[in-house]
Amino acid sequence: MISVVLLGAGNVASHLFKAFFASEKIEVKQWYNRSLKTIDKYKAQVLVSDNLSTLVKADIYILAVSDDAIETLSKQLPFENRLVVHTSGSTSLYAVDMKQKRGVFYPLQTFSKAADLDFKNVPICIEALNKKDLPILKQLAEAIGSISHKVNSDQRQAIHLAAVFVNNFTNQLYRMAHEITEMNGAEFDILKPLIKETAHKIESLSPYLAQTGPALRNDKKTIKRHLKQLENEQHKAVYELLTKSIKKTHGIR
Fold this sequence. Notes:
The protein is α/β, with parallel strands linked by helices. It has helices at residues 11-22, 36-39, 67-76, 134-143, 153-183, 192-201, 207-210, 214-217, 220-229, 233-249, and strands at 2-7, 26-32, 48-49, 60-63, 83-86, 101-107, 124-128, 148-150. It folds into two domains: 2-151, Rossmann fold (3-Layer(aba) Sandwich), CATH 3.40.50; 156-249, ProC-like, C-terminal domain (N-(1-d-carboxylethyl)-l-norvaline Dehydrogenase, domain 2), CATH 1.10.1040.20. The chain has an eight-stranded mixed β-sheet with strand order 3-2-1-4-5-6-7-8, with helices on both faces.
């Protein structure tokens, strides 16, 4: 059984705790957060603390905190030479203090506290300064049903950057589409089958081959009509930028 101490209480930490606690192969020995109020409701399930000096011994210490807090928190840990990992996609492995065994346990998924999540659908990117620490990180991922992927820092940071495009930016486009339908008294829900099919299509096609639409067809009349329809200047700017990008990608003038 792998013993874990979890530090932090944000979205990632909350989902990891639920997954760890449900696993028969993981023992969550302690949950730390600087605000005890946030995790106090879990005290019947796990030892909670807001005092770093009370941290107990465990196989892995997981810093599921904001990127800016990783370096500071790792320096404050009152021990050394233990496996300490962070969960960030973009932060360097070396943000963990050098007195520790350093690693990364990065769940590649979007996390919202209110949304249920099955870790079978969450790939885990693992990284360790010492290769000997990789097997236990792999085992930890497998214990919650995830598939682990050994990556280096450059690969992980590239994956995180790409994730911003496919998740955060795409979600903002959904928001813009929602605004467009609302402004015209149409239902956004009618677009949901299209959203699902667009995501499903890249299971078998590359994004390049899956592209469709007026920009790919160089349908100038439709593009002109769309731009005329758009009253919001931000929407118009995004439409023009993405149309230009699609044309350039597919060699359309």
